[in-house]
Amino acid sequence: MSILAENWTSDFITTNKVKLHYVTQGEGPLILMLHGFPEFWYSWRYQIPEFAQAYKVVAVDLRGYNESDKPKELSAYSIKELILDVKGLIEGLGYEECVLVGHDWGGFIAWNFAYCYPQMLSKLIVLNLPHPTKFKQGLGTIQQLLKSWYIFFFQVPLLPELLLQADDYRTVGEAFTKMVINKNTFSEADLNAYKDAAAKRGALTAMVNYYRNLFPSLFATQQTQALLNVPTLMIWGENDLALGQELTYGTEEYVRDFQIRYIPNCSHWVQQERPELVNQYIWEFLNAEPMGE
């Protein structure tokens, strides 16, 4: 059974030397959606039809994921390349700017893209991924280091891939089922979709290679300590087991026009666990006028 809705279009675009797969619906200004680990475009299944009412929604498979190209080199997953992918996507789709939405790793890319190319963003929306400077500060605390143990495990060669694929990709499924608060959020079909995407040849190593580049990427982006001049909304599921809510505190020091919406009794998988509320908050932000100079 296809996971594509009848009025969604699946397509490819070549940019920055890779072919990227995306799913799209709607016409109008561009909203580009970037997923996290261990996901793919499907993470935005509740947002695609919602925002297609007024926008051209594009939910991409990040490089290395699902149907997008999976370069073998570790360096292919540096933040520099991921930022250039986004730039090429916006331009290749025929736009000069977009609303950029990112969750988890997609959020990390979105933050960094906003600092590199603020003129290409009308608004920025980040879900459950702290500002890069706050994340770096958090990794200096025992509290967050304990939550981020998997980041260090992913630095090991081969072993993470073996764990992720063992027992029919059980760990991939458990990434969702063990973290989510509402246990009805993910159906068996949803979990199988994520497992099938992870099972594509080369995908697991590509996905883990994001983490193998995390520390160089974090410390290669000094400009993220400056004041960001893009109107920004952060949405945060309060029961995130991987990222502490305290990482959000003080973000307004780094973003001129910033607002945050916390969602209680909600996990890291915020746009899938509470889609109606996430969509409501995004609509309110999109329809609001930016703060004056």
Automatic annotation (TrEMBL):
Database matches in InterPro entries: AB_hydrolase_1 (IPR000073), AB_hydrolase_fold (IPR029058), Epox_hydrolase-like (IPR000639)
Keywords: Hydrolase
Statement: the UniProt record of this protein carries the keyword Hydrolase: yes
Pfam assignment, any one: Abhydrolase_1
Keyword Hydrolase: yes
Domain of life: Bacteria
Ranges for domain AB hydrolase-1: 29-274
Gene3D superfamilies, per the entry: alpha/beta hydrolase (3.40.50.1820)
A GO term for molecular function: hydrolase activity
PANTHER family named among the record's database cross-references: EPOXIDE HYDROLASE
This protein's name: AB hydrolase-1 domain-containing protein
Organism: Planktothrix tepida PCC 9214
Phylogenetic placement of the source organism: Bacteria, Bacillati, Cyanobacteriota, Cyanophyceae, Oscillatoriophycideae
